[in-house]
Design a protein that fits this description.
By secondary structure, the protein is mainly alpha-helical. About 45% of the residues lie in helices and about 0% in strands. It contains five helices and no strands. The radius of gyration is 16 Å and the shape is elongated.
Length: about 100
């Protein structure tokens, strides 16, 4: 059985004794920027991909209840590509931030 979670959870002692725990952190900014090669996101301009990954990493430093997951950020990148966003300005972030 594999259990996954995007947030911290308190597991019972019995379950902890029977499971292996592996924490996989968020990717480094350089690796996240490479997601622009994902299908549907490959047409991200280099500048937009750089600003996007910097923005994602800045958001992940905030004290939020839930930080954006890798899959959510890839979904957001795909939305930006579909909208043919060449810049990551305030307006496009505001209009698309809930698209993941």
């Amino acid at each position: 059985m594999i259990l996954t979670s995007n947030s911290e959870r308190d597991l019972g002692d019995a379950l902890k004794r029977r499971c292996l725990h592996l924490h996989i952190g968020f990717p480094e900014q350089k690796l996240e920027r490479a997601h622009r090669r994902e299908p549907g996101a490959r047409h991200f301009t280099r500048r937009c991909a750089s600003r996007w990954s910097a923005f994602i990493h800045e958001v992940r430093t905030l004290d939020l209840k839930k930080l954006p997951s890798v899959s959510e950020t890839i979904d957001w990148a795909r939305v930006l590509v579909l909208l043919q966003a060449s810049e990551l300005g305030h307006e496009i972030v505001r209009d698309t931030r809930t698209c993941s």
